[in-house]
Queue: 2 jobs
Job 1
Amino acid sequence: MTAPRDESKDEAAEAPAAFSIDEVGVEVIRPLRHKYLRPDQPEDAVCYQTDGQETCRHFAAKDAEGQVIASGTLNLEDRVAGQPPFGTPGMRIRGIAVEDDWRGKGVGAAMVGHLLEEGRASGVAEAWGNARTENLRFYAKNGFAEVSGAFEIPTIGEHVVVALSLLPKGRKARKALKEAQEQGEAGDAPDAPVEG
Ligand SMILES: CC(C)(COP(=O)(O)OP(=O)(O)OC[C@H]1O[C@@H](n2cnc3c(N)ncnc32)[C@H](O)[C@@H]1OP(=O)(O)O)[C@@H](O)C(=O)NCCC(=O)NCCS
């Protein structure tokens, strides 16, 4: 006779970790940005030029106790690199960081997904960002294509521009993706990548 299954145990093992994502003031997420994106630089190195502008919005993921465990920022801004965009208007995503002990649990994907939903709701056609080379797998898993060659952002390291169409899937979107990828493979670095 087999022992009855302890379903409460199964639930505990499989239950996804609880967190929520809310729009916040930038001061809420700057400590996390600093800790994981520019730890060796002064705190104001994570004050982006667009942070206080109307086009810019900030989001925090918080655990069940209300502790900030992830950050993300979007700015309504067209991509300026030499490659054709998937469409305009564009939205830059940046400042994505997840607390060390929360990594690998889908929090980063949830944050990116949240930013993309906000973008779709605002009529954005393309999301893009400067991705650190070591994070390209993360962005690919979240649907982004590499649309530039690698380039160096001083003091942070090698990056690649990644982009994603938010247009409804169709022939036009597929053609734009193919063109963007071909341009990416050609290895052009963007003209003016400034901040990571
Ligand atoms: C990149 C980052 C945001 C991913 O967040 P996350 O919550 O771990 O991401 P998810 O759980 O949604 O996805 C996990 C995927 O992210 C990638 N990943 C990158 N670093 C990872 C890490 N330290 N732990 C786990 N996964 C990591 C892997 O590709 C992983 O996919 P896999 O499970 O197939 O291996 C996070 O590692 C981070 O904050 N890194 C430091 C800050 C940074 O570099 N931000 C991005 C700037 S471009």
Note: The helical segments are 7-14, 26-37, 107-121, 136-141, 171-185.
Job 2
Amino acid sequence: MNSDHIQNIIVVGGGSSGWMAATYLHSSLNGLVNITVIESPTISRIGVGEATVTTIKTEFFDRLGLSEAQWMPECKGSYKMGIRYANWKKTPEEGGDYFYHIFGEIPYIDEVPLTHVWIKKRLEQNYNIPMAYACYPGIAAMDLKKSPKLHNNIQAHYYAYHFDATLLASYLARWSVSRGIKHVYDNLTHAELNAQGNISCVVGAGGKKYAADLFIDCSGFSGFLIEKTLKEPIVSFENSLLTDRAIAVNFNENPETDGIRPYTTATAMKAGWMWEIPHFDTSGNGYVYSSQFISDSQAEQEVRQFFGKKAEKADVRIIKFQSRRRQNAWVKNCISIGLSSNFLEPLESTGLYFVYAALYQLIRNFPKKIIDPVLRDKFNQKIRFMVDEMRDFIIMHFKTCRRTDTPFWLANKHETVVPDSLQKIFERHQSGLPIKTTHQSDIKLYASFGVQFDNFWTNTNYQSILCGVEVLPDTALPLLHYRDDIMKKGEELFKHYQLESQRLINTLPSQFDYLSKIYAMKNNTVLDEVK
Ligand SMILES: Cc1cc2nc3c(=O)[nH]c(=O)nc-3n(C[C@H](O)[C@H](O)[C@H](O)COP(=O)(O)OP(=O)(O)OC[C@H]3O[C@@H](n4cnc5c(N)ncnc54)[C@H](O)[C@@H]3O)c2cc1C
């Protein structure tokens, strides 16, 4: 390799983002660059029992050559087919409600989304099958805690995973060390800059200096390099997103008797929402809330009440956060990835997506030792787009929630700021038009990570939430008034999905049975594979 190419990378931080960065860079650069991960022996990782989105399989695990039988048993992994939103329309006192946001694109008929056939039927015929049940054949099976895969491993539904991110970090650390990535424990105290303002080295507690050409800051919320050393400002979203704390609590579960839900549950609460993430035989749970509206002890009380007996003796952990991003994620020769770079309140489980999506963009814009600012600017622009688009989608959830029973929900309705980009989406929806259509089947859309990155939220996603809470447009898509042929084809598809739904219920194994088979295949090839 030329001496003007990057030869040494230091990753600061050994949380899930640090180890994902080390493994991803190692495999994407063909092992040609020396990578060292420096992790504090005293500062623990964030790990709350994470949920993910579909591309983590193709863009991350497949890239490392890791099969489900290898990594899932190590990280208590389970399948996730989507998110169930409970009580976002009605309070429990009003009887409660739920809707789903499911993976996979809802199809188009002659470039009109099936969602809009559903909307017309709902508005004009009071069609009473909820959108997700009408447009996805796999939901009834999901309710019955079935696996998204058949016993012969054929996939019947798009899926992502639930797992313990702390265990994932440990697993990836073992994978890394067995492949020559260096792992150092040290409490870094500061960094030194050269005359151009680039980082020349980071300095450990005993004064040891670690030099590299490129530094990846995965130091979590503290932002050891990007904030403390390079002082890159943040762009805060606190005017739009009020939640700023979480109480996390883990439980042991009994999957053999209770089954394993293949979805995340997000239940609206008095001052935020509760997450439930089922792993194989444990679960990660917690309350994301706003400290303006509820104290930590009130929030803890709500958690204990919600989970009842299970939570009586459980330890809880309070995590403070701010929804925000760096103005620039890449500054000088330092790229911030993970919590040091950005964080959005976790309603759509996108934290780890931000990690491998940033790594994907970094590889596409990977520099030489002397960094061409064009590469850096391109990366920064992609990360800004990624976070801001996600921010709008999450704000949409809070803005359209139908609850007005507490000061928190009233403030979300009347006081928080709607970015112009989201306002345009609301206007478009009200006019009856689809939002962000791709006209692609999911096979084409999901075939390229780059295409998916640019089209992360599509009409399917927006309609799942808006129609889920019954924020319907004023009028059906005007075109459909003239196109009975599209309406008829839509009706046929709805009927076909009802039949298909029964077939899936009859043929899919339970998630517990399917995972038991995968877990029984557990082996330690992660180390054996190294030659
Ligand atoms: C409430 C909550 C819920 C979440 N839910 C989800 C979810 O459902 N799905 C999802 O994908 N993501 C979720 N996330 C985000 C996800 O947990 C993080 O993105 C992920 O864990 C990555 O964290 P990290 O590695 O950036 O930081 P951390 O895990 O905090 O790791 C930081 C590392 O830096 C090291 N370090 C710090 N300072 C120093 C120093 N001076 N010297 C040496 N080492 C140092 C620490 O030792 C540690 O190893 C959630 C986060 C929160 C807070």
Note: The chain has a mean pLDDT of 95.
